[in-house]
Amino acid sequence: MADAASRLTALAEELLGAPPPIRIRAWDESESGPADGPVLVIGHPRALRRLLWKPGELGLARGWVAGEIDVEGDLYEALEALAGLIWERSEPGPGLRSLGDPRLRSAVRELLALAGPRFWLPVPPPAEEVAARRGPLHTKARDRQAISHHYDVGNAFYEQVLGPSMVYSCAYWRDGGSLEDAQRDKLDLVCRKLALREGDRLLDVGCGWGSMAIHAAREYGAQVTGVTLSREQAAYARKRIAEEGLTDRIEVRVQDYRDVKDGPFDAISSIGMAEHVGSVRYREYADVLYGLLKPGGRLLNHQIARRPEQDEAAYRVDDFIDAYVFPDGELAPLGRTLSILEEAGFEARDVESLREHYARTLRAWVANLESDRRRAVRHSSPGRARIWRLYMAASAVAFERNRIGVNQILAVKSRDGGGSGMPLRARNWNDADGR
What we know:
CATH class of the largest domain: Alpha Beta
Oligomer: single chain
Strand order of the largest sheet: 7-6-5-8-9-11-10
Helix content: 40-55%
Number of strands: 11
CATH superfamily of the largest domain: Vaccinia Virus protein VP39
InterPro entries: CFA/CMAS (IPR050723), CMAS (IPR003333), MeTfrase_dom (IPR020803), SAM-dependent_MTases_sf (IPR029063)
CATH topology of the largest domain: Rossmann fold
Protein name: Cyclopropane-fatty-acyl-phospholipid synthase
Number of domains: 2
GO molecular function: methyltransferase activity
Keywords: Lipid metabolism, Methyltransferase, S-adenosyl-L-methionine, Transferase
Strand content: 15-25%
Radius of gyration: 24 Å
Structural class: alpha/beta
Family: Belongs to the CFA/CMAS family.
Distance between the termini: 74 Å
């Protein structure tokens, strides 16, 4: 097919209402578009068939996962260039989702011609896509399946991406520090906000590979119960805890937080877990945690948020992330999360945005993955390594461009009479005494 790149450029302009901001190279080695910067490589016409059958982000993502779409050059620069055209359009043009619009028949005919003679045949999704899901959202059984898809992919893969800290949430950066330093500082910030003291009972909801539990027990003398739905995480955490000599201070369970019955606790940490809860269960989540705290107890809720939307369905994560990364995940606006926590009885005492910290953390994780891609593939699969690279890089750009944010909410279950036990200077966490 002669000069497929020029035809793709013209087609993209017709569908999106503006010329592509980066250069395109097609499967016939033809190129079109700006001479400088990254190159979007469409390596096989099969990628266009995917768009015909699944217009929009998911079709593009399937092409990426299959290796039919790639970026040559700086991936972040490419994502930045495409963001304003695809994800952040204030006045959307026809768009890839409107391929069935009769007004776009000429564009569709061109896409069919480029896709090749077998365009009518659907292309099976590449591996690692979430299998068909059954039943209502956020039942215990469905949540277990979703968590297993994301976390039970091999601890060795996460060791490479996350580094020695094994913390899968945003770090707390200071100038000149390493990722490990920044993750340690984040865990310490959480412990100080919770005012942990020797002998306090801490419930760590979504305890991951045990890093928060270990820090709280080792540095603050807390008695920690960690719960996770991932068996691989739990096994890894228990091994680390034994190596630290902390088995008398930490218990890790494979358990749904809704099944925890041995409260009350002095404090609860929930770091990067509430994104899995979903809007239909969030009030239940808040009620359960409130009921598990002692009067005067504190909750530290560390959670990604999206910008406010009129439509609650928009809280669902993007199609690519739902299909390949975080099944059934939802990102609510900060205000909604605060309102539900308050409705459950909590008093919100502090909110701290860490948006820029998460962007920097994600870039560090991408650098870890890219430092040895062959190793990443060996510990997972080619598709999985491509998925994580795109999802983390795209998420970094989303945080930097303020499409999403992340916040730590410190909330208190008041004592009888309304006392909070909080210091007068709320941000001087080292000065938190008495509850």
